[in-house]
Design goal:
single chain; mainly alpha; 2 domains; elongated
Length: about 260
């Protein structure tokens, strides 16, 4: 009799507790969780083991799961809203070629949409790994700079129009591999961005040595209307220096985020 009364009471309150899960989660797992609770409760009663301690443990564990699932739901809803905003921004940016009547093909628009939205997604995912504002700014600068570098290089090239521009993908590869090795921790990310800055400024220096060595085909195609080191030594170094400064600025922000992180 005591067992039946306790079972009904604990089952009633456990069923109430399960209702606090997000509705999609409850609809999928709620019935199974309630059945599992009842089965375990019955087994312990048959073994004449402590029912109150078991019920308390199940209530605490379930409460922790409820908090976790609700927080996850809020975060995912927030990400969805932000990505929806980014999708609108990307669509607005891609109207510029239409209004300007640029000779873009369907492939060009698809490429632009993938690159722009992909960059926004990378930013959202990385920025959420830390609540530090310096870290978020650092991620924003790094992603935006990498996006512009990739876009310019893919569209027209930075140093002429020859295969020497492939070295810039090495700069981006340093950032990608370095971020993975650093596990997106601010101290490791700072070193990665410093390495990207060094590689960025090294590219035009290597290209200049290639030019002086007479390997013109690496800097420009044979039928290209541009000279080998187009648009000129000074402009190329200035543009690369600007990218390098952006990477360095991002590195210092990551370092700042690392210094302010709790130890």
């Amino acid at each position: 009799m005591t067992y039946d009364h306790s079972r009904r009471r604990y089952r009633h309150w456990y069923a109430k507790l399960l209702r606090l899960y997000p509705k999609p989660y409850y609809d999928r797992f709620g019935e199974g969780m309630e059945q599992t609770f009842n089965d375990l409760f019955r087994e312990r009663a048959e073994e004449e083991r402590g029912l109150s301690a078991f019920a308390l443990w199940m209530f605490v564990e379930t409460s922790a799961g409820i908090v976790r699932e609700n927080v996850t739901l809020v975060i995912m809803q927030n990400i969805t809203k932000r990505l929806s905003v980014w999708a609108i921004v990307v669509a607005a940016v891609l109207t510029i070629p239409v209004l300007a009547k640029w000779p873009w093909t369907g492939g060009d628009f698809a490429f632009g949409a993938v690159v722009l939205f992909g960059s926004a997604l990378v930013y959202e995912l990385l920025a959420r790994t830390s609540g530090n504002s310096a870290y978020r700014f650092a991620v924003g600068i790094a992603v935006a700079s990498s996006l512009v570098l990739f876009w310019i290089n893919a569209a027209v090239g930075i140093i002429g129009d020859g295969p020497v521009n492939l070295m810039y993908f090495g700069v981006l590869s340093i950032g990608f591999i370095g971020a993975l090795i650093a596990r997106f921790k601010p101290h490791g990310m700072a070193r990665t961005l410093f390495a990207m800055a060094f590689a960025q400024i090294a590219v035009p220096a290597i290209a200049l040595m290639i030019w002086k060595a007479g390997w013109q085909d690496l800097l420009t195609h044979r039928n290209s209307p541009h000279p080998p080191f187009h648009p000129g030594i000074a402009p190329v170094f200035v543009l690369n220096g600007m990218f390098a400064m952006l990477f360095v600025g991002s590195a210092f922000l990551f370092r700042r985020a690392s210094d302010s992180a709790p130890t």
